[in-house]
Each structure stands twice: as C-alpha cells, then as structure tokens.
Amino acid sequence: MYSNSGYMFSQVGRPRGLFNLGQSCFMNAIVQSLMATKFKEFCLSNAGFVNNQWILFGNLVEVISALNDEGDPFNMVNFVDSVESISQFRRKVQADAQEFLSFVLETIHDELTIVVEHQVSDPLQDIETHGLGEVVKSHWETRKSTSPIAEFFHVQTVTLMECPSCKNSSGQFNDVNHLLSVPMPSPLEGPKSVAPSNPTITDCIAEYCKQQTLLDGHCSSCESLGLQHRLLLGRLPPVLIVHLKRFYRHFDGTMRKSQTSVSICPELDLAPFTLYDGQSTLYRAVGVTNHRGQVLHLGHYMTISQRGDR
C-alpha cells in the first residue's frame, strides 16, 4: 500500500495484534495493513456514529478502534461473523488476501455510498476540444455517486487507442477499481523455465501501462489496421493499493506462483503513467502484505507496515 497524503501512522506503545481464528491470517493481514493508511482515521472518527445499516463497516470500526490501543491481541470475532454472514469467506479455510480485501472495500463502499443529487454539469465528451486529460478528470468529478471508499482508494483507468496512420485517438473509460492489479514478469515457458531479472514495483506498473499493437484493430476513421493500445491512469487516490499478479498458468496447464523478487520502492512516482496534471503523483510505501507458500490456497500471510518513523 502507498500513501500520497503525507499521512504517517503513529501509535504510542507496542502495536496490538490479532488472534488467528484458524487460518484467518489473510483477514488479519488485510486489517493490519489498513491500519497504516489514513482510512484508519476515518474509521476512528466514525466510532460513535455506526448505525445498523453499516454491518461490515461497523464491525471493522470496532477492530480498528481496538488495534489503536495497547493491549493483548484482539479477538475480531464480530467482524469475522459479519464477513461469514454475507460472503463465502470462512475462518479455518485459507483464502486469497487480495480477494478478501476487494470484498471488504466493495461491501463497505456499498454500505456508505452517497448519491450525488446535484451535479455541476455533464461530463465533458469532446476530446479534440478539451483534451483527453480534462475529459477524464471531468468524468470523475461529475460521477453520480461516491463513498469514502471511493475517495480513499478508487483508481480511475482509461484505455487510450491511437491510429499510427491518421493519428486519430479515442479513450475508453474502464471500471473504477479499488486497487491497481499489475502483472508479474512470468518465467519463460518451457520445461526449463527461467525467471527474468528482479523487477521493481515501478517496472510492474510500466508493464501494465505499456503500449501494445492490436493487429486486428481497425481505425474508425481511416480503416487502417494495427491500432496502438495503452492503459493510463486518470484520477489517483490518496491510498494506492498495488496488487502483484504472482499466479500464472504454466505451459503444462497448472497454476504456478512466480517466486521472482520484486523491489518495493519506498517512494513511487506515477507521473509517467497519468493523464492529467494538478494531482499528486508521489507516493510513499506504508505497508506490504506477503504470501508465503507455493500454491494458491495454502501458505501464510504476513503484513509489514510503517509505524511512525519506524
């Protein structure tokens, strides 16, 4: 997880842990990682205002409040009970931490969504007149609903298509995501697979955003083949979650986990991958959640997070 808000987690005394309720490490790791972000302060500020409609959020606030104090490991049984009542996630059954995080953020987003009743204007449409960056920015600013989850975490991505012959360009707005899921360099296919050299987080994001040629793509203006396709980032969130796609399909048809080491950049600059100016593109690493193990549904999750200046 990365933060661009200048926020730094601080806690007096020894950080508090969570009981493992039986292979619940994937839940514990995600909750502890959220503690290192400014979203923690939002949870604490709502501790006295939780209502019956905030089922998952209310129980998460209870956990965040407990972890903010010193003491013995906390038993987040109420939170886990609420998770089990509305999802397929279960204690004593290992699951993917990224899938669990997406579930938590999506559910709380739905619980806290606010319908924007008064839009200032319709979003800009004409790219040639206003420029793609301003059109992308306008689509975010005039959305019809929002939530604190959207404000903290949502990443806006745009698919940019350009014809190399006539230079006609267009942009397609993709679904807004809670996280940026980027590819890992996969080992070369074959019986003697060889992993590539160690990449950085920036390298993985560059791979995600790299330009590609669509050989069967037709230009709507001149009918030429070979459109240039590239993913770019629009609105950047205060808290950026980067997910590494470590699992891939091997040449023998089985799912494998890439063991390639990825360097976590203490500071991350997304300026080369964004569409418009006027927003902060500098991020600082505040937490990393690791999976130890060789297969998808076995192993152990651990979180390393920034605690003040440590």
From TrEMBL:
InterPro entries: Papain-like_cys_pep_sf, Peptidase_C19, Peptidase_C19_UCH, USP, USP_CS. It comes from the Eukaryota. Residues 16-310 form the USP domain. One of its GO terms (biological process) is protein deubiquitination. One of its GO terms (cellular component) is cytosol. It holds the Pfam family UCH. GO terms for molecular function: cysteine-type deubiquitinase activity. SUPFAM superfamilies: Cysteine proteinases. Belongs to the peptidase C19 family. PANTHER family: UBIQUITIN CARBOXYL-TERMINAL HYDROLASE. This is Ubiquitin carboxyl-terminal hydrolase 2-like. It comes from Frankliniella occidentalis.
